[in-house]
Design a protein that fits this description.
The chain is an alpha+beta fold. It is 42% helix and 13% strand.
Amino acid sequence: MPSFAIIPGQKFLLSGQVITFRKRARDLGQTYVFEDDNGVPCTLAHEDFVRSRADNRLRDWSAPSVASRGNGEVVQRARVTFESACERDKFMAERANEYILEWAKDRSVPRTHESLEPLCKRVHERRKARADAERRWEPKAMSGSRLVQLIRKWRYGGEKIDTVVPQVEHRGNYEHRLSWTVRDVMWQATDEFYLVLNGTKVAGLHREICKLIKALNKGRAPDLRIQPPSYDAVLRHERTICAFTRAYCRQGAQAAREQFRLVQGDWLTTHANEVWEIDDTRADIICLSEDGKTVIGRPWLTLVIDRHTRMIMSFVLSFSPPDSETALEAVRLAMLPKDCFPGARDRLEDAWEGHGRGETIHVDQGKQYNSKAFKAGVARLGMRHETMPLLKAWIKGTVERAIGTATREVFHTTPGTTYSNVLERQDGDAAPELLAVATVDDVREKLLHWLVNDYLGRMHRGIDNTPRRLWKRSIESFEQRPPLTREDIEVATSFSVGRMVRKGGIQVDKLRYLTADGLMMEMLAKSKGDREVLVRRDPSDLTTIKFLDSRVTDAAREVWHTATLCKEHVPRVKGRTLEEYQLARSMRDFNPDRFGDDDTHWDAAYEAAAAELRRRADSKLARDRVGAEAARQRILRQARETAERDWRMANPQQHPDPQEQLNAALSRVAEPTNPTGDATQPQPPVEQDMDELRRMHGLGARRRNEESE
């Protein structure tokens, strides 16, 4: 059973009450011990912890002192003092102050880590005994080098406890010591003298920077002159340059590629849910509609796989080309338990355990994986987004091989497959559209059955194990990140767009949605920025949407409100999907004389859009089918002719030259064979022999002129 990486002192919100994690019980990490603000302990078993997160009863809690981004600007924060610090920071400051005061009793002790080690051990033993008596947690002993740093800060800060309060929550407010003018000069000199072939070294770069600043100071007053940077500042500036860029500019492209080429096909991983890979492809199979007669076409397959264990986390089959919504849907299904998977059978979760919270997701250069919506959703889930280099598919080879295996063993074994190569089709096979018998639900069910019963229990050469067995071993050996609630996952993976709240409601795709909360926001708004909201919707149901105030940046205070479609627009989208509505609306916009401007001709627009899609799909499928069949027949004909020619040359006695046989037959026709000597009479036996001989060699029977006969 996996355990979650929870830090002692981390705070959660359980049913509206703040609790603090203290420790794990001595039952192999299956029980977690918490305390409330009054110090009353409470315990949660591993199953209760997971269930509480899924039911949205146990949430992460952030201190109100943590500032957030508002209106696009970073809020500057002052230094935290002992009075304004949280309980954990106060505890760490008191602990550091006790170590420092122990040294202050005898300041003759040298401030070196060797001399301060016995002092640290003595203070730690005293604090450990006091913590055991009070039944609380005590960190390990402070090192001598750390105590040297704290003593220096304590002395320079006026020997106050405020100087040793941790400022971890206030990192990120660093101000550069060098001015913008000096930094611009440094980058200018770097581009001209350092990042060139056989460029100068760091010392030469420092000299050039000093020359440029000296020339810049000639026309300035003495009080406005710029101080040149030191050699150490230039050295730190040089270290910020990318190593590949440095080698590429100074040594050349070939040297940089040889120096930074990949030794292995992918990065090494140590545990499950460390790296996920996602990719999509066009499935090699023709699917039918639910009536079993209408040909829809080839669906798209989007697949997510865990690199370390080869566990397929999720897959999505859809007929629309891959977009950000499909990619986010695949990530959502990968994180949730498999009881919510489309078409899941009973007890599927026991057979397919792939779920959790990934750390990094690797994508290719596809626009759907590098869009703002997909990156924002991945960041909201707490995952890193990394894009692989162009034209290097072997770096993301795990998902590529999994898609190839599914194509060969599922799609190519189903009636209606198009195969990856026309030569794989057998001679005499009909077109795939005529052989197709499966709907998209049938293909999804077959793919799911193959995944659970075959793929997950198969030995893989790359991991020397089965994905199911390695997955269980990995989650039991390595601590997993706490799972997100189902509501947080749904919100993060929903496709959101920004809109403005107005008096008439919220308008999305020329559809107007009404809500009392939106009207209240519009009345209380003081600027346009106060009326901006984020909207997310279900592509299969356009009658309602969810919207969130864009000014809310704290996840704990997010409230998604519901807006309902106005009655005038309900006939437009009732029973229609988002894709169908957008197509019909586009046809109405470009054909107002045919469909009109009112709401009475939407059914005709939907029918016209569906007919146009079917016509385009049929024409493209027919064109592809004719081209593939012609290429296949041409290749087979060339192969037969080559084989017959080789056989004739190898067996001249068994198969004489057909031209010689024709010449002999013509000579027999020219000779008179009747006793009367009348050469004008036809010779039926000889003519039959000639026709048979021509058919034998594929020349066809010679046409006779009935009038001349």
